[in-house]
Design brief:
Blueprint: E1 2-5, E2 8-11, E3 19-23, E4 28-31, H1 37-50, E5 55-59, H2 65-68, E6 78-81, H3 82-90, H4 93-101, H5 107-113, E7 123-125, E8 128-133, E9 136-142, E10 151-155, E11 160-164, H6 180-191, E12 199-202, H7 214-232, H8 237-242, H9 257-279
Parallel strand pairs: 4-5, 5-6, 6-7, 11-12
Antiparallel strand pairs: 1-2, 2-3, 3-4, 8-9, 9-10, 10-11
């Protein structure tokens, strides 16, 4: 666990995504929750070691499992975008089964997930909501991009921004539901000088600053340009995806299977965006 500001804590060691919490003086506010059940319980215990204040809210930055599955461990109302509320209301036994199946190689985790209880938001925003708790001002801002429900969480007085999946550090983003233009706009917004954020908490990777947002921007712009060109010249989706294979090392590190799969899915998504745009 890292303390990144007065009463602001982050954990980057849990699988599938970073989580944080804010001690406000009027209660604790969580930003996302660990997806693996035993890690969510561990996180609850770690919070209790820092403060005896009650957890009063859980904020979900979107509706993906790595943000919302751990909600069940924390007895607090959930705040998220209205699209997250709609999505979670649609989750059924098939969602739980897909999640269990994804951990088929880890039977202990799979067993924990079989009893998953989906906790939907009780408070939903459309564009923006400001929370005033204790000595903290916490701004929840809709940006879209990663999903139709993606929000960022900004503590302007502390210079801290929880970017959710809009920012990743050192890995390929996940763009299978992306609106790439909105995503670029969101990254540009974060870099604006009036957005006071010296410290950014990405969805994946280590804590960073605004400079790190430039690389995902370049990545998305390159994918958009290459997929637009591929579609314009009549390439099939498979041909277009093959044409960006060298981008697997865009974020450095080994060109492992996860990076290859993410790049393939991202290129396919952007290709379909370009195709849809050409048909409008």
């Amino acid at each position: 666990m890292q303390q990144i500001g007065q009463g602001i804590y982050v954990e980057t060691a849990y699988r599938r995504g970073n989580v944080g919490f804010v001690v406000t003086g009027a209660g604790v506010i969580l930003i996302n929750t660990p997806m693996i059940p035993h890690e969510a319980h561990h996180w609850r215990d770690e919070i209790a070691r820092v403060t005896d204040q009650e957890i009063i809210y859980v904020i979900n930055t979107d509706y993906h499992p790595e943000c919302i599955v751990g909600n069940q461990v924390f007895n607090a109302p959930v705040i998220a975008h209205e699209q997250t509320w709609r999505k979670l209301k649609s989750y059924s036994d098939s969602f739980r089964q897909r999640l269990v199946d994804s951990f088929s190689s880890e039977p202990k985790v799979a067993a924990q997930l079989r009893s998953l209880r989906i906790v939907s938001p009780q408070i939903a925003l459309t564009e923006r909501t400001d929370l005033y708790k204790g000595d903290k001002v916490i701004r929840l801002i809709y940006v879209g991009g990663h999903t139709p429900a993606s929000i960022i969480v900004h503590l302007p007085a502390d210079g801290v921004l929880f970017a959710g999946d809009i920012v990743v550090n050192g890995v390929h983003p996940i763009m299978d539901e992306a609106n790439s233009k909105e995503w670029l706009n969101a990254l540009t917004y974060i870099r604006r000088p009036w957005v006071k954020a010296d410290i950014i908490v990405p969805a994946e990777g280590e804590i960073c600053d605004k400079e790190v947002t430039k690389k995902p921007s370049r990545y998305i712009r390159r994918l958009r340009a290459r997929m637009r060109g591929a579609h314009t010249t009549g390439q099939t989706r498979a041909q277009a995806v093959s044409s960006v294979a060298e981008m697997v090392n865009f974020f450095g590190g080994a060109d492992g299977e996860d990076a290859k799969q993410r790049l393939k899915a991202n290129a396919e998504r952007v290709y379909e965006e370009m195709k849809a745009g050409a048909e409008e």
